[in-house]
Amino acid sequence: MREKVHRHLGKVLTGAALAAAGTAALVAVTLPGTAGADESRGAGGGTRAGWQAGQGPDAVPPGVVERAPAEAERGTGRDPLTDDEIGRVEKAALAGRLSALGEDAAGERGPQRLSVDLAEPEAGETDDPDAPRRADVAFYDYSNDTLVTKTVDLRTGKVERTDTQRGVQPPPSRAESAEAARLLIASPLGAGLKADYKDATGKDLTSPDQLELSGGIYRAAPGAQPAVLDACGTHRCVRLFSKVRNGPWIDTRDLVIDLSARTTAALDRG
């Protein structure tokens, strides 16, 4: 694994070097008013120090950072959801059995929150400025491997409908990627990841907080994985893309973490 990691890192660093070169080319531009100026005076009068201080005849006044306007409690129409609306619809969606009996990626009570999005208008509401605003709140319940989506009326706080699906796997949340990394670090299959982290930083890898993580869903494909991963797709399985914070990438793409079974496995590459 470590040989593959270093080859992969070489490609990343080459890309970064090219990007840096492009950036350097962009910033090497002569500033207006400086070309042709002598050592002491700018073209329109005034000392060079005055020009540098922004006091020349065409000087632009310094920028002023203004405070962002306060966010309203409620949006209108197709406005993005406000923080207040997100908090209220999450609370409404979690009420009842789902909160009491559901389970998140870490095995704690309550389902795993995935997303909160403004719902699409229903038939006949598209051009109605007074149409209800609704939000779709998606959870994954690890107690029975189901995706639960609740649609909440933002004005009344009422849950209008609940959809439950099995075998549907949206992208993992940040919390799920962190839990997958925690399981991998604790697994024997995480030995290569920890060794590469130690090589890159000189420190031991003990927590997902030491990595920058993103994840993708893995689904079982005939003959492409060990039998232990055959349930992936019904189970929620994740492949991680791992990076040392402010450092290089570490290739963990061949490792799959089954969050439902809380197991890890390496893909069969033949």
Automatic annotation (TrEMBL):
It comes from the Bacteria. Residues 119-129 have a biased composition (Acidic residues). InterPro entries: Cu_amine_oxidase_N-reg (IPR016182). Residues 34-63, 100-133 are annotated as: Disordered. This is Tat pathway signal sequence domain protein. It comes from Streptomyces achromogenes.
